[in-house]
Amino acid sequence: MAPGIIADSFGEQSPVLHQKANGNGALNGVMSPDVREDYEGNYQFAPIEEAQVSRAMIKRYFDMMYDRAVSDVVIIGAGSAGLSCAYHLGNTQPDLKITIIEANVAPGGGAWLGGQLMSPMVIRKPADRFLDEVGIPYEDEGNFVVVKHAALFTSTLLSKVLSMENVVLFNATSVEDLIILPDPVDLTRQRVAGVVTNWTLVSLNHDTQSCMDPNVITAPVIISSTGHDGPMGAFCAKRLVSTGVVKELGNMRCLDMNRAEPSIVNGTKEVVPGLIMAGMELSEHSGMNRMGPTFGAMMASGKKAAIEAMKILKK
Ligand code: 48N
């Protein structure tokens, strides 16, 4: 076998790695000259060592985890309210360390579809202005607009949020408790000061395997937008009740679009010191009506949560 050629597992010959890997498997970031984008049967990828792939992920992910152990704002739930909030905060406050925690592998919450698994998404005016700001096309129906597929809204918003330098998303990660400490300003009060996290698959299996302890992320402001349904819906609203910080749940009321949407937007606020609640989680916390398959209030509630967060941080 010619020197410098490594027989790979199929016995075929593959180009040798052009630079010997240094200690940590890096090839000095220099691309091999063998790369060829040839669709006539001779497509050549740059060579790689398998450990390089692991190290490329591990280093970045755990550097991110280390850095965001202390964040400025934590947003729980990457649904339409949480993502809209992250967009406004990330856009207007580029120096803020914004960390989103999303239990699902796929962020987006209920905003991948409209209603009853149908794909078009209805947004009542004036929330269409957010679509203009993000650059999402829609059909104008007068008092409301229709995005042809909810996934167009969510994927566009997600791409904008994730491209912001100061926004980090930990998906497949759950908030499974809150950090509640004496308020440093008024020791007679308690203040939410962070979140307790675990991989979602672990959080969902605490009943099958004990002693899988969590991790923590601290922040002066927590924004909870965990929705009203799903395996962890209204998580913080329920946790605040079970820890006695809030007396009882308001419980979501029946559907009334004209009452529900303004009440969710206008009711978006700091529900306990350090924790702002947004989106449909508020309907469970404060007993607001549901609006069903119209999403304008989620976008506006997310923006209001961002405004409320800045009021707290500027104090
Ligand atoms: O989309 P959701 O569920 O929540 P919102 O408030 O962003 O949007 C609600 C909206 O989709 C509706 O429900 C519409 C308007 N319908 C109303 C109606 O009347 O039926 O997103 C919440 C996200 C989800 O992605 C969850 O996976 C996530 O929050 N989540 C969590 N992430 C981390 N830790 C948790 N404990 C947790 N709980 C939920």
From TrEMBL:
Substrate binds at A81, E102, A103, G110, V175, D213, H228, M280, R290, M291, G292. Keywords: Cytoplasm, Iron, Metal-binding, NAD, Nucleus, Thiamine biosynthesis, Transferase. Its EC number is 2.4.2.60. Binds 1 Fe cation per subunit. Its main location: cytoplasm. Its cofactor is Fe cation. GO terms for molecular function: cysteine-dependent adenosine diphosphate thiazole synthase activity; iron ion binding. SUPFAM superfamilies: FAD/NAD(P)-binding domain. It catalyses: [ADP-thiazole synthase]-L-cysteine + glycine + NAD(+) = [ADP-thiazole synthase]-dehydroalanine + ADP-5-ethyl-4-methylthiazole-2-carboxylate + nicotinamide + 3 H2O + 2 H(+). The modification 2,3-didehydroalanine (Cys) is found at C211. One of its GO terms (cellular component) is cytosol. The keyword Iron applies. GO terms for biological process: thiamine biosynthetic process; thiazole biosynthetic process. HAMAP family: THI4 (MF_03158). Homooctamer. Involved in biosynthesis of the thiamine precursor thiazole. Catalyzes the conversion of NAD and glycine to adenosine diphosphate 5-(2-hydroxyethyl)-4-methylthiazole-2-carboxylic acid (ADT), an adenylated thiazole intermediate. The reaction includes an iron-dependent sulfide transfer from a conserved cysteine residue of the protein to a thiazole intermediate. The enzyme can only undergo a single turnover, which suggests it is a suicide enzyme. May have additional roles in adaptation to various stress conditions and in DNA damage tolerance. Belongs to the THI4 family. This is Thiamine thiazole synthase.
